[in-house]
Design brief:
Layout: H1 5-19, E1 24-26, E2 48-55, E3 66-74, E4 87-99, E5 119-129, E6 142-154, E7 168-177, E8 195-198, E9 214-217, E10 226-232, E11 239-245, E12 262-263, E13 288-289, E14 295-300, E15 307-312, E16 323-331, E17 340-342, E18 345-349, E19 356-363, E20 378-381, E21 387-389
Amino acid sequence: MRWSLPLRCVVLSMFATLAMAQNVTVPASLAGVEGGGGTNVPFGSSQACRYQVVYDAEELPWTGPRLITGLLLRADNNTPNTAVPAKGFLDISVLVSTTTKNSATASATFADNYGVDATWVINHQPLQLPAQPPWPAGPRPANIPLVFQLPWAYGLTPATTGMPAPRNLLIEIHIHYQPNGLYRIDNLGSCVSPFSTFGQLGPACTVPGSPPIALTSDSSMLAGSSYGWHIANAPPSMPFMIALNTTNVGGLLGNPAWPLPYPMFDPANPSLPSPALVPLQWPAPDCWLNIDPVILLGGLTDSAGNGTVYGALPAGRQYVGAAFYSQALVFAPTANPLRFVTSLGRSSTICGPLGVARIYAAYNGATNPPPPPPISGTLQLGVGLVFDVM
């Protein structure tokens, strides 16, 4: 087919624009964040391996068309300040495709997940996995290059009313041969929840002779899962509560006249309760309510003054990115007239599960002739490699 000059100019201009796009991370929420689930699949053995990952379109950091010229993988850094030796050479091929399958409908049969644009962009290319120096906490640089032998365009759906949006993304890495040796890559086996502390806590809000109440929580916060909050430095065998809300702003009991954080004492006279807490009769000097409690989860500390409670998080990907704000309130008979002490507030953000699924199968590829590759493998939801797009 012969293209007219204006059409050729439009197409060339479009590809030039796509080519100028900056490197971005897939899944988008892991830009600058360690995946939390490093894995030796597919690079951590001496076996050949067929490895495929489906990414829901919602996990991609772009919308509309994008020209992709390669992938940059990240080595795992779940054990910071640890060096990783190089491994090579491997013989790999890479296929990319859009697909109507998503993480929930992906098939364990590799070919079932292909779209009509499935393309082998790397064909039997030697690859050395580079040595990684000790690295502080956080993700390593994306420095394992899989440079395509020909560019591939994602989402060239015409921008016409009624046409379907770009589909989900499929990446398949086929390792035909690799030498023995471990090499872990960053992976979505779990996710690390961002957290922070907030609010006020005075030096007198403690059990005499003990440090302040410490509130921590589980590292991985997944929608639809059971999630734990933990306290330490509390009196032994005493009841405690974890107060929860989805915000840490506003006023106590919804009253703007009692803004958060709110004192559990009268700042003008710490021997008296604050106006909102007059019904409690007694003050808790230097203690503050850093959130307006909406949910209270109760527990009992152990003989060492530690305690844990669990709560069920709402299910659904729409909650990824939502924050929960918490604070501990502990019964402490010797601490103050109110007999309660509090902690600083702690926020935790739901980090997953993300819309990702992987399918993989290892096999002995060292025979001569090599066996045909497997047509199906193990399917796992919420698991897949983290990479930057070139």
